[in-house]
Amino acid sequence: MQIFKDDAVSWLSTLADSSVELIVTDPPYESLEKHRKIGTTTRLKVSKSSSNQWFEIFPNERFESLLTQIHRVLKKNAHFYLFCDQETMFIIKPIAERIGFKFWKAIVWDKVSIGMGYHYRARHEFILFFEKGKRKLNDLGVPDILECKRVYRGYPTEKPVELIEVLISQSSSEHELVVDPFFGSGSTLVAAKNLNRSFMGCDISDAAHKHFKKRLCK
Questions:
Q1: What is the pTM (predicted TM-score) of this model?
Q2: What is the predicted pLDDT for the residue at 162?
Q3: Which of 157, 167, 164, 146 has its CA nearest to residue 203?
């Protein structure tokens, strides 16, 4: 296990070309800040009663540099998954395609129960599925809607380990290297460990590192 505290793009730039088999990540994208400010995403609010301190937003203007580094470090014939919302999806897709990724589809994570909001309250999130070169999924019978209950009382935007395990199982083999440059709650790293993959992670947030250390001690 290798864990680093750094800016995601800066950290990725230190990794060797074509050295990673799979990247699964969930950047703190810009539209999250909008939802937090207007109160439609209460779990992301900073308050005196909350132990979760808000993390820095990764601005849309930096996605080109991020995706360029991700494409560089991924081996040929590898997959890349990125969690995002409907606003960020339309920003990321054309940038990724211009850099050289093939966009397959937006996988839908069905959270089972609805969240906060005003207009058709959301119970889903998108996982953008990209490919560098050609790599076959390990199980062609898995649907593009993945049903998994959201994590309550966890780190802000925490993803269920069992959800990440589906992605890792589909796009890597045992002992291959899985990387998450925005590891947040550490769900990707835990999932990789559970599936006997090598893994590396980075996050610039002190709260993320503190949370993940506590998680490892449980």
A1: 0.89
A2: 98
A3: 157
